[in-house]
């Protein structure tokens, strides 16, 4: 199966909206770094499971047996996707993204080695892979990146080695993103693992922005010194919205420690004077009734991606990315962030930019309202990184923080626009974005006159409105569904 075979197999690709100029066009979805669209075959697997739905932790009736097997299959898909050894590693479903797993890891690893009171992170981390470590570690050190803003690159390995040496014996683990959610820049996580392990530290990798784009084995060579100790990722960024987050980790990182969350399914026995936590993985880490349907949908999505081959997915995306970055770089008035030399600094299909004469909020809003292109703007839950990338521009503003309107002006400037690819992104989508960017750059005053800024740094159209309920309202959708049921007449 080739990557092209699935390009059109996503729910929502044909969604159409009426634009500010009256045209009705198809949405171009370029916001996959926030959440991906649903892969239709994976969703169909989840819908079929609902015909047999029951709870897990039993095999005494047909449905329970079917669901228990399907849920175990989903765990196996998560392990297989990272080439993890099922005898040494476990896959745990938790929360609705990677945040729950990262909070759990931060607590568990701090308690396991309290004498190691430092955690090394990086400047480019999403808040999910930053704040939990700040909360539970006594000391946080942010390793620097290569280059200078706005062309920052990946983690500086020489500087990281120096940080580990300066704190020899104190660093508990290194927390690092496999790829930035802002720029898509890739970190050499296996090299980082080797450095960390040489100092007795573990490595925790947030792979949420990486796994939909490229293969990531736990060890790139098979050697244990280059093996990632724990990897977290989000199902909603892997074409399975509504699925849980995932933690794949060595079992001995979590064993012999009572889990933070207690409840049904994670104990072998409970009596009035105590309880016995099971030794079984993943049961001991998954208290309560799990998100069975979401996990199976995610398992199906991972299985499909393995059948295609993530190396092929990556190669196809890189061809499109190189073309897009080259065209965007050559466009006068476009400012790109992060090192754009893809040979020196590899990146995935995520590109952050701003346009001369237009604030990031105005750019994103106008691209939506007049070109039906869905991109995201702001700081993307990575405030320190975005501010560092923008540092030369923000310094050039020479704002008086006490001046009237200074805060709103800073909010409108302190951010960027992000276009991010998915498996469904094709050259037509990127050509449409380039066309929209050129249109905005050609007529900045025209577009500025159409919008009014608000106090929060956003922009609202002066005459055009597209309230959400025009396209979807949950209660209206429910009314339509119930109206099709003749049995409800006279009942509801």
Features:
single chain; 492 residues; alpha/beta; Aspartate Aminotransferase, domain 1; Aspartate Aminotransferase, domain 2; 2 domains; seven-stranded mixed beta sheet; four-stranded antiparallel beta sheet; 15 helices; 36% helix
Commentary on this structure:
- This protein is of the alpha/beta class.
- It has two domains: 3-38 and 309-470, Aspartate Aminotransferase, domain 1; 43-307, Type I PLP-dependent aspartate aminotransferase-like (Major domain) (Aspartate Aminotransferase, domain 2, 3-Layer(aba) Sandwich), CATH 3.40.640.10.
- It has 15 helices and 21 strands.
- The protein has helices at residues 40-50, 62-81, 99-112, 131-136, 157-166, 189-198, 292-308, 310-329, 360-371, 383-389, 391-397, 406-413, 427-442, 444-450, 474-483, and strands at 10-11, 16-18, 24-26, 28-29, 38-39, 89-94, 118-122, 139-143, 171-177, 202-206, 230-234, 245-250, 267-271, 274-277, 334-336, 350-355, 373-374, 376-378, 416-420, 451-453, 459-461.
- A seven-stranded mixed sheet has the order 6-12-11-10-9-7-8, with helices on both faces. A four-stranded antiparallel sheet has the order 15-16-19-18.
- Helix 8 runs parallel beside helix 13 and helix 9 (360-371) crosses helix 13 (427-442).
- The mean pLDDT is 94.
């Amino acid at each position: 199966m080739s990557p092209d075979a699935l390009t059109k197999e996503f729910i929502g690709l044909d969604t159409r909206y009426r634009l500010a100029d009256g045209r009705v066009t198809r949405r171009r979805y370029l916001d996959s770094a926030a959440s991906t669209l649903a892969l239709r075959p994976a969703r169909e697997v989840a819908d079929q499971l609902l015909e047999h739905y029951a709870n897990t932790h039993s095999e005494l009736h047909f449905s329970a047996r079917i669901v228990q097997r399907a849920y175990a299959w989903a765990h196996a898909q998560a392990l297989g996707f990272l080439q993890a050894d099922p005898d040494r590693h476990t896959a745990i479903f938790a929360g609705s993204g990677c945040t729950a797993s990262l909070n759990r890891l931060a607590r568990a690893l701090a308690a396991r080695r309290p004498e190691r009171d430092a955690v090394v992170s990086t400047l480019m981390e999403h808040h999910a892979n930053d704040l939990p470590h700040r909360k539970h570690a006594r000391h946080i050190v942010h390793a620097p990146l290569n280059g200078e803003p706005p062309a920052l690159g990946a983690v500086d390995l020489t500087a990281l080695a120096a940080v580990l040496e300066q704190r020899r014996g104190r660093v508990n683990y290194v927390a690092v993103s496999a790829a930035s959610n802002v720029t898509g820049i890739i970190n050499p996580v296996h090299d980082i693992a080797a450095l960390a392990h040489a100092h007795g530290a573990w490595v925790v990798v947030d792979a949420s922005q990486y796994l939909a784009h490229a293969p990531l084995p736990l060890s790139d060579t098979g050697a244990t010194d280059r093996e990632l100790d724990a990897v977290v990722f989000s199902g909603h960024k892997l074409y399975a919205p509504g699925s849980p987050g995932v933690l794949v980790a060595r079992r001995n990182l979590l064993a012999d420690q009572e889990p933070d969350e207690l409840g049904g399914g994670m104990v072998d026995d409970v009596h009035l004077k105590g309880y016995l936590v099971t030794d079984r993985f993943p049961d001991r880490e998954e208290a309560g009734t799990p998100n069975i349907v979401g996990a199976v949908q995610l398992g199906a999505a991972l299985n499909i991606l393995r059948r295609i081959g993530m190396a092929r997915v990556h190669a196809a995306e890189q061809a499109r990315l190189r073309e897009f970055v080259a065209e965007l770089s050559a466009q006068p008035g476009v400012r790109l962030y992060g090192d754009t030399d893809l040979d020196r600094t590899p990146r995935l299909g995520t590109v952050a930019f701003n346009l001369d004469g237009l604030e990031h909020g105005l750019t994103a809003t106008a691209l939506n309202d007049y070109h039906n292109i869905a991109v995201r703007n702001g700081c993307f839950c990575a405030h320190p990184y975005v501010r560092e990338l923008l540092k030369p521009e923000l310094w050039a503003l020479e704002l008086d923080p006490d001046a009237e309107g200074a805060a709103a002006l800073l909010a409108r400037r302190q951010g960027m626009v992000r276009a991010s690819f998915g498996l469904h992104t094709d050259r037509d989508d990127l050509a449409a974005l380039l066309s929209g960017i050129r249109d905005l750059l050609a007529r900045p005053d025209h577009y500025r006159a159409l919008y009014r800024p608000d106090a929060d740094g956003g922009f609202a159209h002066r005459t055009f409105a597209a309230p959400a309920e025009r396209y979807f309202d949950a209660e209206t959708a429910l009314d339509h569904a119930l109206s099709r049921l003749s049995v409800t007449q006279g009942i509801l």
